[in-house]
Design goal:
Length: 219
């Protein structure tokens, strides 16, 4: 008889990614232990040995999501040159991810624990805190824009931040309900049209003079 091969080493990162997809698709309470262990390719004792508990696994999966598919918000708000560009990139980049067919639709942080039994209240609160962090990141970027003169003086950045975070979270729900990128893009365009003050980079800001500015008034 040929000697048996050595057992395959446990790939913790792969197992965590598999669990993330299950939680993303089915939510915390909808993801059964059988669902999770089947996707991860391990048995329940191995799951508990590697991650401690279902909730601990979920929290790690949320971190994994935030560092990968959910990383666009932090990137846009940190790297784009203006507040408006940051908000636009945040919305458009996330919308593209929300509708990709290679993974569950929408945002895991928005959808995975909307409703939970009292026993799982800590899970719902954990995702609520994650969404609060997104709201604060948005408001912080808007405050920087206000200080830089990118927003009209007196702009209520708390209200504006609340508006754009609501749009962002709503895009996730619409994507889960089956909306495609064209529908989400139309929502984003409408939201950006409400940006305070004149539009950024209007067509006649290129140095050309509009004919309406040069034509003589008719008597």
């Amino acid at each position: 008889m040929s000697p048996r091969g050595r057992p395959r080493a446990f790939d913790r990162e792969r197992a965590l990614t598999a669990a993330m997809f299950v939680f993303w698709e089915r939510g915390y309470e909808g993801a059964s232990l059988a669902d999770l262990t089947g996707a991860m390719g391990i048995n329940p004792p191995s799951l508990y040995a590697a991650f401690g508990s279902k909730e601990a696994l979920f929290r790690e999966a949320v971190e994994q999501y935030s560092a990968t598919y959910g990383s666009h918000t932090a990137r846009a708000l940190a790297e784009e040159p203006t507040a408006r560009a940051a908000i636009e990139a945040m919305l458009r980049d996330n919308a593209r991810v929300y509708v990709e067919s290679a993974h569950p639709s929408g945002c895991m942080v928005v959808l995975a624990a909307t409703n939970c039994a009292p026993a799982n209240r800590s899970v719902r609160e954990h995702l609520g805190e994650a969404r609060d962090l997104v709201r604060e990141l948005i408001r912080t970027r808007l405050r920087r824009g206000l200080e830089a003169g990118e927003l009209p003086e007196g702009t209520d950045v708390d209200a504006l931040g609340g508006f754009f975070s609501t749009v962002l979270f709503g895009l996730s729900v619409q994507a889960r309900d089956g909306a495609g990128l064209p529908e989400l893009t139309a929502v984003i365009d409408a939201a950006l049209a409400s940006w305070p003050g004149k539009p950024e980079n209007p067509e006649n800001d290129t140095g050309a003079v509009s004919t309406s500015d040069t034509a003589p008034a008719k008597s």
